[in-house]
Amino acid sequence: MHLVCPAGNLPALQAAIDAGADAVYAGFRDQTNARAFPGLNFSDDELRRGISYAHARGRKVYLALNTYPDSARLSIWERAVDKAADFGCDAIIAAEMSVLDYATRTYPRLARHLSVQGSATTAPALRYMYEHFGIERAVLPRVLSVQQVERLCEQSPVPLEVFAFGSLCIMVEGRCQLSSYVTGASPNRHGVCSPASFVRWDEHADGSRSVRLNQVLIDRFKPSEPAGYPTVCKGRFAVGGETFHALEEPTSLNTLELLPRLAAAGVAALKIEGRQRGVAYVTSVTRTWREALDRYQAAPSGWSSDPAWQKELSKHAEGHQTTLGPYHRNWH
Amino acid sequence: MMKLSLGPLQYFWTREQTLSFYRDAARWPVDVIYLGETVCSKRRELGTRDWIALAEELAESGKQIVLSSLALIEAESELGALQRLMGDGRFLIEANDLSAVQLCKARGIPFVAGPTVNVYNHRALAILMDDGMSRWVPGIEQGEALLHDLRTALLADGRDMPELEVIAYGRLPLAYSARCFTARAFDVAKDQCGFRCIEHPDGLPLATREGQPLLRINGVQIQSEQVMDLGPELPALRELGVDMLRLYPQAERTSEVVAHYDLARHSPQPPPRLAARNGYWHGEPGLHRETTTPA
User: Fold this and answer.
1) N or C end of chain B: smaller count of CB under 10 Å?
2) B177 vs A contacts (CB less than 8 Å)
3) Is the ipTM above a cut-off of 0.90?
4) How many domains is chain B built from?
5) CB neighbour list of residue A168: distance below 8 Å, 6 or more residues apart
6) Domain containing B151: what range?
7) Which residues 209-238 in chain A show a CB within 8 A of chain B?
8) pLDDT digit string (tens) for B223-277?
9) What's the whole-model pTM score?
10) What is the Cα–Cα distance from B255 to B276, expressed in whole angstroms?
11) Is residue B206 part of a domain?
């Protein structure tokens, strides 16, 4: 299994490669990718340098072009595909049909991976993308149980990549309009979820804080309470007279203990989420997974999850909590 | 004349309530009725066979009956149900994800692309038309300007628009998950959910901690709390060449909504507002706020 790690900028890319990533994924500094955050991502020159750095060490760079252009902005995505081919990216990761179609017709030898934002959860859906656009790999949305992933590995026309660690989207990716509904800025159209420009923190006289997204109250925190980033899905709301994390707690996905099952199922690659995170995160999470994978590959039958790995990963988890999420059947 | 459609029932109602609703609907002035479970395959007050039987019964009313597929398919059993829904091809299928698109394409049968199939531009639309899409229901983010641009670009490419159906009335479907939020609200596992969503025939309200109603929990689906109403925008919808207006069933007063829209489509004047202004149509956040209301 290959380890695919996030690179929000050039130092993170180099850190991921140094820590043992087989491939990194990166995006341009615009709305063509799903982490269009201020201060993040790559200029043309930085991407060229990142690709050189990776290729010199025998590793790969995938370019995320995984947002959905509207008709008037199609050419921006097409130019990004042109640059991916020109700079020598090893693959593009795309979700949208016209982007995939353009890449297929214009650069048939540039590998195409289906992004998680493509929202393909079944063998027929994967077959659709394979028949039309010759995708070489697909990233699965974080909605399937491990049993379902195993079955899909048997039936998929293409190798599969699954999320191994990082922030957990609770909704099926590519089809969540919660940020869009409240702010008008959407992951699909603008490459952002709950953008910082809409976030307002208020500190109150008693030391408590409240956080709003485009004026909508997402949560309140007591003076000592840890506060996470205010996405709609991770707020506390009132339902049936009770106030709680009605959709999802701030927590991170961690599938480390499933590693042998995912390997046995034939999963081609494990993806680490977090292009918005810094060098320290990328280094630590990549190194930990590299070690876990290497130890598995050396002796699959004797492998067990090392508590030190879990401890290290928990440090980087949202709210310092991790979950198996939908991989685990009894999750609710 | 614009057509009216009754969108698929998004909630979980008892068998009696569902059958009674559709027997009434057979007499309403709608041209198209979408049937089937689009949210959760565990809901079996009506199974796939029952939906098909209901489709056959309602087809006698002369309305076009369309069978709608699940928006999020995870299990092989759900793919099997989809195959049965497609049956012998007697009814048009609303494909609500790429699995259904692929199965229709493979069989060479026409389909409606539902609002949870991602289409944001004219090229993607043309690909789906080549695959057999005969009608398109744009996703909820698509407003007047985006649809205008898309239509212009498609025509410039020498293609005609497919039949265009726009969500005109109802709570917007905003998101789907592997998690059942109704089960979570009652602190029960999804596999032992007890079908608690049947107790909430218009969904379970979710409000902010300062009491602002925000969303509706409907099993694995999240909806807008606001019921959206594009009635007052009818002149712009006509201008854009919209062929059909989709009205989503609610537990109460759906027949009145249908009557209101039937009157509106026959009138040159736009109707008064029945429910919330849909910000998406105007290129704004979907959520209506006082500050975005025109004076």
Assistant:
1) C
2) 143, 170-172, 247
3) yes
4) 1
5) A142, A248, A251, A252, A253, A318, A323, A325
6) 3-172+225-282
7) 214-220, 233, 235-238
8) 999 999 999 999 999 999 999 999 999 999 999 999 999 999 999 999 999 999 9
9) 0.96
10) 18
11) no
